[in-house]
Amino acid sequence: MKLTLATNEEINILHSRYKRFNTQLLEKPSELYNHIGIMDVFNRVLTEEEASELLGENHNLKYGANFLDTFTQLFHLKESEVYVHIYKKGLSKEAFKYKLSCLNRSEANLFRKLFSHSKGIYKIGDVEALVFLTKLSVTELYFADFFFPSLDTVIIGNYDLSFPIYSKTIIGFKKCKEIIEENGLFIRQ
Q: Residues with Cβ < 8 Å from 105, sequence gap 6 or more?
């Protein structure tokens, strides 16, 4: 698994492009991103009744592969580098231990490494690392922000396979939408 700390130069470039790394905490993302949507299994917001019927662990297991395939295709785009931000604040020792207990030994070791550095910005170097990080979000074990600089886009892991997507350009947004739809998913706007 190839996952390396982003260099200071890479962090500065990402910061100048995205302004903030903890995108999930933005109160008004539309101030930084012109194109916003939700990558989802459904093309509309579910009613409460539908959500209680359809969502949950089985839902995530059933559709998780669609998300893994989408992220893998985005990763393989020409000239595409992918970075991940691991937001470390707010995770108690008990919660951290629980998350470790849900992982196999090698995954737990990697998860520990992610929290051993203060920067929290990593460059994803291979599909194995990408799949590991995507699975953390798909299984709702730990949510991360994925940065796709070649698309000027950020995708955020979230509950119920409803991943917010923020793009600075229509070109990046449309390319993401194309790949997302190829994998049987939707972007709700």
A: none
